[in-house]
Amino acid sequence: MEQNVVLPKQKVLGIEFGSTRIKAVLINENFNQISSGSFEWENKLIDGYWTYSLDDVWSGLQIAYKELSNKYEVAFGEPLSKIDSIGFSGMMHGYLPFDKDENLLTPFRTWRNTTTEEAAQQLTNLFSFNIPQRWSIAHLHQAILNKEEHVKDITFLTTLAGYVHWKLTGKKVIGVGEAAGMFPIDSQIVNYNQSLVKLYENKTADVDKEWSLLGILPEVLSAGEAAGQLTIDGAKLIDPSGRLKSGSVLCPPEGDAGTGMVATNAVAERTGNVSAGTSVFSMIVLEEALSDYYTEIDMVTTPTGKPAAMVHCNNFTTDINAWARLFKELISSLGLNVSDEKLFTTLFNAALNADEDNGQLMSCNYYSGEPITGFEEGRPMFLQMPDSTLSLANFMRTHIYSALATLKMGMDILTQKENVTVDQLLGHGGFFKTEKVGQQMMSNALTVPVSVMESAGEGGPWGMALLASYLIDKNDNQSLENYLEKKVFSQLDIITLDPEKKGIESFNRFMDRYINMLEIEKTAINYLK
What we know:
This is Sugar (Pentulose or hexulose) kinase. It holds the Pfam family FGGY_N. By secondary structure, this protein is α/β, with parallel strands linked by helices. It folds into three domains: about 10-250, ATPase, nucleotide binding domain (Nucleotidyltransferase, domain 5), CATH 3.30.420.40; about 265-315 and about 410-495, ATPase, nucleotide binding domain (Nucleotidyltransferase, domain 5, 2-Layer Sandwich), CATH 3.30.420.40; about 320-400 and about 500-525, no CATH class. It is about 40% helix and about 20% strand. It has 16 helices and 23 strands. The chain has helices at about 55-75, 115-125, 135-145, 160-170, 175-180, 195-205, 215, 230-240, 255-265, 320-335, 340-350, 390-415, 435-445, 460-475, 480-490, 500-525; strands at about 10-15, 20-25, 35-40, 45, 50, 85-90, 95-100, 155-160, 175, 185, 190, 220, 250, 255, 270-275, 280-285, 300, 305-315, 360-365, 380-385, 425-430, 450-455, 495. Helix 11 (about 340-350) crosses helix 12 (about 390-415). It starts with 11 loop residues before the first strand and ends with a helix.
């Protein structure tokens, strides 16, 4: 080992099971990433349900950890055998029911499934609280409505993160932010909403089952609470080589929405974050619960149980990416070679020079359905008027505005109907890779300052590692908000852009045309099959 290599005083592991990748990051006492590993995986459509094999859960975890462990040994000259704290997160929601012998009763039904519409509508009406189709309670109730045989045998229902945590520690627990994707949470008690639990028990009293809802759901824990220790068997599940020792403490498992909040320091009231990639969602931490429920808004919580409103849009940059591939094909046909980074940077920067009316161009970026605007299907479209000005600048700004339009409609429900105040949004994701362009246009569209920080690109697994660090590193009674603000993010550079008057006016004119254009989208769906 080289003499100048300084061994970390603290080793904290964060692992996130995302939709396309299992990512593991190891951080030190200064919250810097010191090693990482990953494994790519894909969901499969089996018997009408999107699912992942549980065998892939463990093989993927082991491959990601092995890569991380090998990199650590190369960097520090010693094997990775002892980790101080560990945290697991995963794609939220979904359905993993187990029987008394710990057998999975159905293949894992992921958040992507849209097979629970009847159950979601029934529960939304029963609770007067929006229950999205992807929530665990919607999957459970749909199984009841379908009279599925396995329902009577359920003894434990959890999410992907909760399942992994259970197998590694023996503890059937879950973080409150993740629990909020299973069943509505009462932020006053940081637990499942007891009055809604009673409503559900009454509604299902005649169902052939021996379980109660609270009897099968995992225990709810808040950030900073101990959630068990890595067992000997659990350590072998992560590292079959046997090098990893048991005894690491684990923080409550969380969902990817919660880790996104933590990774962007957006857990305090009146703050929020926007995750912007192929899809987009904003998470706004509220000062108090909303006065009414909206099918366009998901109510979840921060990892400490504060109410948070989620605006989720299925479509964001997919259409932009498709046009970029077309441009790259043209460039390649001319015998030229341009990197993806340069191509996207050039296209996004061109949008800065667009006419104020975008040349009267219009587009709809719906590749799939969009619940906020009531579309079950999508038909991506690009439109121009006979007198439109078709230029690269106008073309690109039109597509960026189109990507932002549905998010704007969802956010307006919060800011206009509920008078929610947002002091700042912190952005992360591929949309912000080109410096300032997407950031400024989002700020103009939402009329909120938008900030970007360097660490936001490290994403969910880093946020999960921060939650694991908080468990072992916080001062007595130190809140998560204070811990992140004072210890983690105080030294990081943040770039904030405020809304511009001309940009706001330009986007508002676009929105007027966009709302009218949705009627054309409906016609396209009806006639183009």
